[in-house]
Amino acid sequence: MEKNNAKAWLYLLPAILFLGVFMVYPLIDVFIYSFEEGYNSASQTYFGIGTYNYSYVLHDPYFLQAVKNTFILVVITVPLSTGLALLISVGLSSIKKLRNLFQTVYFLPYVTNTLAVGLVFMVLFKKTAYTDGLANLILSIFNAGPIDFIDGPYWAKMFVLCFYTVWVVMPFKILILTSALASVNQDYYNAARVDGTSRFRMFYKITLPMISPMLFYLVITGFIGAFKAYSDAVALFGTNLNAAEMNTIVGYVYDMLYGDSGGYPSYASAAAILLFAIVLTITTINLLVSRKHVHY
Amino acid sequence: MDNKQTYEVIERRARRRTTVRNVIVYLFLGLWALMVLFPFYWMVLTSFKDYGSYNAEYIPKFYTLSPTLQNYADAFTTVDLAQYFLNTLIFTVITTALMLVVIIPAAFAFARLNFRGKNLLFTLFLALMMIPNELVIITNYTTVTNLDLRNTFAGLILPSVASVFYLYLLKENFAQIPDELYYAAKVDGTSDLRYLWKVMMPICRPTIVTVTILKVIECWNSYVWPRLVTDDPAYYLVSNGIQEIRENGFGRENIPAMMAAVVVISVPLVVLFLLFRKKIMAGVARGGTKG
Questions:
Q1: Is A21 touching B (CB cutoff 8 A)?
Q2: Are A113 and B121 within 8 A, CB to CB?
Q3: Which residues of A touch B28 (CB under 8 A)?
Q4: How confident is the model at residue B282, as a pLDDT?
Q5: What is the CATH number of domain B80-287?
Q6: Class of domain A61-115+153-293
Q7: Where, residue-wise, is CATH 1.10.3720.10 in chain B?
Q8: ipTM of the complex in this document
Q9: pTM
Q10: How far does the CA of residue A292 sit from the closest CA of chain B (Å)?
Q11: Boundaries of every domain in chain A
Q12: Could you say which of A234, A241, B7, B155 is the most buried, measured as most Cβ atoms within 10 Å of its Cβ?
């Protein structure tokens, strides 16, 4: 094939420009920001270079709270949503009638605005002077409550956040797992059936190994997504997440940048890089674990 | 005789077991469907409830006997819902169109043309896919602020255009088109641009449509960047709009009007989804990341 250098670069120019200005340059800049001490965004000056920003962020109680919240959210929602999605997908692939309908319904949360539907969840769980809310109505059947899930105790708020997060991430997981299940070669099941293998054994010995790459992909993207949780929390608890004790790491970054407590791009940069380091570490651990357990 | 009976017993038992299993499966699936649909039902229901009667319900009712459209009128008059809507529409259309203009030629260059540094550049592009938005958003915020682009459409749109992942999807698809077509077109004296426009894009239309729909969903739901660069309600998108409504609009307690706004915001994407159900689900299965 002939070389047409100039023309190719011309075709690539817009993409390179956009990516250069809004991705590559910021990527370099964020590291510089994070080491510039005492940066002032008004005069664009700084005192010196060092790791003060990192130590400030690491000692900030709001950041520690955000890290704690994010880790709790990750540890609860990732296994829960993946397991639930697996159960639902297995159920879906075992039926014929209504299957399309169920699939369509399950996918709905994916196309809805997180902020908008979060408001509905807030209404369902909120306890006001006028009403205890629907969640408390259900609790009262079991003689419990009422609990204020939105402005109340920490674990009640964490419960709602986890609940909503699971609700939001399920469509993607169900979709991926149902297509993974559909792609398993039926011959394996037929062969197992001839041998009189029990259903549970077939699931454990055929289905799980065959879909393990997809399952693992979901775990990785689930971890990454959950570590970046932010808009779900905003939808439920409002923009002042620090006051609600429900901030996440990403929320901390944005609060440092903008809003009432904002104007500190250096702290924001340091926090963003710390988040990136955490996500990178967890993903690497995941990859190492998968080498042993995932069957390709 | 005896054998036949035992056979029937076994068969009946097996059939009963299948029925029980089916009932359990359908119950379980139905339960989750209820979990998914209930918030939607509740938001539509509440949006039709009268303000007074809603607040009078200490125990929430699951139905309403006197539906009213007043809340929808309120949603459009008390807050600038129409404005937020229009802003989101402009933002979505321009961002998606610009993205296509940027990534289609680039995908063509990677898939079809040969030039020095191609592999290196493509590897660099792929590496960019791993960069989380949170890292670059800080400098972008500063850049946009310094360029005085806060509270403008340019400031909203420009940083949202580039999308390496969609470029990658499109390049993979372009690369599947056999080389012979290209040579045949060359022999006929077709220019590269014309070949791209007349041959490649029609062949790859499904992928282009998928990428477009995914980008539209992404734009419609984007919240973080619009929140950072706009504080003037005249430039709010629906996500910021809904947050604004929650914190300041309708005097806080007017839940029915809030729910009416939520319904209005949710309807376009739900309709889009029902129209392009297969395409969207296939597209997300290939290229979605939310989750």
A1: yes
A2: no
A3: 87-88, 91
A4: 84
A5: 1.10.3720.10
A6: mainly alpha
A7: 80-287
A8: 0.87
A9: 0.88
A10: 24
A11: 61-115+153-293
A12: A234
